[in-house]
User: What shape does this take?
Amino acid sequence: MKDYQLTGAPAVCPAHAPKDHPAVRPSKIGVLIANLGTPDGTDYFSMRRYLSEFLSDRRVVDYSPWLWQPLLQLIILTSRPFRSGAAYRSIWNNEANESPLLTITKDQTRAIRSHIEEAFGGEVLVDYCMRYGNPSTESKVREMVEAGCTKILFFPLYPHYAGATSATAVDQFFRALMKEKWQPIVRVVEPYFEDTAYIDALAQSVERAYAAAETKPDLLVCSYHGLPKRYLMEGDPYHCQCVKTTRLLKERLGWDDNQITSTFQSKFGPEEWLKPYTVEEVARLAEKGIKNIAVCAPAFSADCIETLEEINEEIKESFIHAGGESFTYIPCLNDDPAHISALTDLIKKNLQGWI
Assistant: This one.
């Protein structure tokens, strides 16, 4: 069953048109929120389908397909789905039989939809899609067009721009538009890494976590998803945007430089990625005598495998094993009211001139 069925007024034959003219729905505006994606299940074949789609994306892994695909299909996808499936099972929402990312994205969409409906009534339809897995971007674009959306605002839920995240989501959106006879007018929400309301929501989450911690952290580690360093050298602005978010968060909290730092996680493959690597840096901090840390993930709009399993299990283990004592994971902003308010305000700004 669909989480939300896009609806609109019934389609009718346009005024002054011949009786055999196809019915047309009254014009609506769509807001399509996009997140990374999720496997449909934790079994081998569900994981293999998902990982194959994800790792076959040239924005994510830009090696020559002639070299990469045999390695991916014949070697990597023989064993990795088992390991990834086990990791997903450790965080899986068994009650809803879905990943936490999907559960949280649904919650975010419902909350945003409520605010948008309060502001604009039924004139704006709000839904979500995934870049990889389901519900697909193509299926949701099709539903919005069928519901009468002649304008669509596309919102990749990535605060920071990266070719492997924001750009591939937009690529997929435009591929979906290519299949529409009547292509809607579109806009894309720009990255919001320095948006004041977003920074404030991050700061509030840190303040709450510090107030609730039994042992006050000595340092806040802002762990961002990594990218090959080569991407930075080729012009991708992701690294610079991440570092700016950390600086703005530090200034909002009124902290000194020695109270906060930026690191990068999820390294994959043999080449050098953005440094310092989170898993190594937290161990180095513990060995250096910093025994109490907190970790947040500003680049993730929703908790997922990289935060719930990688940060709160693998990276935590690295810190404790190296002599750390207190590890506080600060959850992503998820459907926190301040986060929803910030996202809704961005949507309203981008709808100006359409409403």
In short: The two ends are 31 Å apart (CA to CA). Strands lie at 28-38, 124-133, 149-156, 185-188, 219-225, 260-265, 292-296, 326-329. The CA atoms of residues 8 and 178 lie 23 Å apart. Residues 28-192+338-350 form a domain with the Rossmann fold fold (CATH 3.40.50.1400).
